[in-house]
What we know:
Strand order of the largest sheet: 1-2-4-3
Order of helices and strands: EHHEHEEH
Radius of gyration: 12 Å
Structural class: alpha+beta
Helix content: 40-55%
Largest sheet: 4 strands, antiparallel
Shape: globular
Number of strands: 4
Strand content: 25-35%
Amino acid sequence: MLNTRIVNAPHLDVLQMLQRRMPPHGRAYIRDNPIGAVGLIQSHVTDLFFFSDIALKAADVFTVEIYGTCPQHVTSLAVMGEVSAVRTAMDAIEAQHSPF
């Protein structure tokens, strides 16, 4: 299972919603950096660690786990940065995803 979305120029309210579900270092990143886009990925926890590594190697982005209601099974990852960097990272993730 892999669900992805990209939010370009996220509204302040969307960033606040995300901040409520992330650890402190993620909130600090949003506070201290301009966010041109947010890529959102929902999948199994093991996949998200793999996808985070792919994103960080593919582009100048910041990744952070978004806490969900079932963290042991399905959770989300936010990929944040400039629009082109987020698109590059998300494309790299989708290229590496194998839905076996």
